[in-house]
Amino acid sequence: MDKTVRQRDLPPHRGREARLEILGAPVSTHRVETYVLPRDTCGPDDATAPATRVFLALPKAAPLRRGFPVLYLLDGNAAFDHLTPALLEAVPDLVVAGIGYDTDQQFARAQRTFDYSPPVAPGAAPRPDPHHPDRRAGGAEQFLARLTGPIRAEVESRLRIDPARRMLWGHSFGGLFTFYTAMTRPDAFSRYAAISPSIWWDEDLAAGLVRARRLQPRQRTRLCVGLGDSEQRTGSSAPARKGPPPQTMALLNTLCSLDGLEMQLTIYPEAVHIATLGASLPETLRMAAA
After folding, report:
1. What is the pLDDT of residues 193-226, one digit of tens each?
2. 280 included as an active-site residue
3. Annotated catalytic, 231?
4. Distance CA 256, CA 264 (A)
């Protein structure tokens, strides 16, 4: 299961404001654009929450016979902040869709906490975030319905997409959502990349997702997990620790024995939590385009 990569030049965290230089950069293979989705069809229902902003990298080439493969990137503002022309030009036939928020920041922290955190049980009402009681949590079920329903329909309305080659990527809380989707709706995407998933947020809940999994042994779900070996929770006063997060590794050891799941683990040497976001993109783009 273990696949360790060599040290690489990890893109730095640029702070909270998204620069989105890729929107103005010349890319020989793609046209890059962004727009806000209509709230009345794509939500969210909370009128005070930011609307959904889509970032799209569209191939200039004609679609493949069966349509373009597509990679969906959660936290689209931050993900597209790390995209470069060289990364896109290496995958000329791949549609890249960043699903973000209508904000100037890299992360809409309160809204992503709600959208990406799983409910305590299917159909359960939202609850306060156990780590930040001023934030709501448990909206992943509703967000997944929006993502695979009206959001996907809007994104793909002008494109010819191969439905058998949709991939979902998420980092941190987005990685937790990606893991949640792989366990509960494995057929929603053809492949998943959960990067530094926030298993620590509720370890019992994550373990419950594994127990209640809906994997199909005859149709293997492909899950790629990426972790840094120098990750530490923001604000922690504990001494720096080498090695990937132990609670995540313990869960992954359980996943290795599951029927219907094809696991791949990548460790990014000397990568802190935020650095795994950018470090994972080259490999993820290649997987999605393969």
Report:
1. 999 999 999 999 999 999 999 998 888 999 999 9
2. no
3. yes
4. 9
Let me know if residue 19 belongs to a domain. Answer: yes
Provide the 3-class DSSP secondary structure of residue 192: strand
157 is a catalytic site residue: no
From 117, 196, 273, 283, active-site residue? 273
Instruction: Given the residues 30, 196, 198, 231, select the one marked as catalytic.
Output: 231
What range defines the domain where residue 188 resides?
15-214+273-289
Domain holding 157: CATH number? Answer: 3.40.50.1820
pLDDT in tens, 88-139: 999 999 999 999 999 999 999 999 999 999 999 999 999 999 999 999 999 9
Per annotation, catalytic residue among 172, 196, 198, 280: 172
**Cα separation, 203 vs 222, whole angstroms:** 22
Report the number of distinct structural domains present in the chain: 1
Domain membership flag for residue 262: no
